[in-house]
Amino acid sequence: MSPDTFEDQLRSLLHDTADAEGPAYVDVDPNAVVMSGRRVLRRRRLATGAGIAAAVVALGGVGVATLTDGVDRTSDPAVSTSVPTATGPVSVDLTRTADVGDAWGRPDGRASVRVTVDPKARTWTNALIASDGSVSPQTSAALRANPLTATWSRDPGAPGLVVGLLPAAAVNWAPVWVDASPASTQDVAAMPGTGLQAFALWHEGGASTQLAGLDWTDGQRVYTTSGAAVPSERVGDEVVFVDQTQGLMGIFGPGSSSFKELRDTPDGQQPSVMRGVLAEGSTMMESSVLVLLPAGATRVDVKPAPGATLLSTNAISGGSTSGTLLVTRLRMPEATPGTGVDRVTWTNPDGTTASSKVG
After folding, report:
1. H helices within the chain, ranges in order?
2. Taking all residues of the chain, what is their mean pLDDT, rounded to a whole number?
3. pLDDT-based confidence at 86, cuts 50/70/90?
4. How many degrees, rounded to 5, is the angle at CA 245 between CA 240 and CA 247?
């Protein structure tokens, strides 16, 4: 059996499993979001829009690629579907830090949560831990059959807190909110031997905030909550993606990421999102700008904003339905307004020329 044939069969089985699990998702509380990360006890504050981190990221030219379902057939799949090896329940404690209290409100004694996975019983539980160490009654749910799916729950006694599980292969994530995106922070911990990682999310939205879904990445491609691949591509040290079904696009990068809901695109412009990186002590920022162009766009030309220097431009074709992802990298003064891209011009499949401002 060729590697391509094996990958096709494995992918088909996983997608069939995700489809079969569809009815089971009706019990998932929509007032939730899943965080991701392979590192033990990784904490960070999250927000949508242009991300700027005090770190240096190498930028360089990348060749033109074809964007389909996010699968790179030149290498082995990055997602692991190994069988869990844990012989008994595995538990981790997740804790809200001081900066989380500032973001979420005054500490209320319910700043920690314990997550337990029992691979043999195919269940997972979570319980709130009070400041005096007492543990609240546990809530329990069944583990999903598809190893690439995410699951979560929300305790009605702790508004603004969501607890759940994500595949161990996930190294980053992007939430899809029903309404405005609230500021949030999270704690993540690996659960050895389970093929999973646990997360706790504290957000400022409170009890009325609802999550429509999420996208997560293994560092090579991007998947939805059900484990289905979305159009994505690794470009240098970043992974760009567009999920038109859930209405989200973004750039996953080392140290920081940036996401944009497609519905937030100004009238008369193409959807775009920018991720900026500012080296400590420097006044020059290097950024990546992702612009979603119509499917079949060719002869793409990028006009940088005044003061910005164009480093590279890559058009990634998504075929007839996914659109064309334009990835542009620039260097510009920190004070440069907007994304650093002034305008993009391209040729449509019918030969007409089109142009769009880029915020």
Report:
1. 3-20, 98-104, 319-322
2. 76
3. confident
4. 65
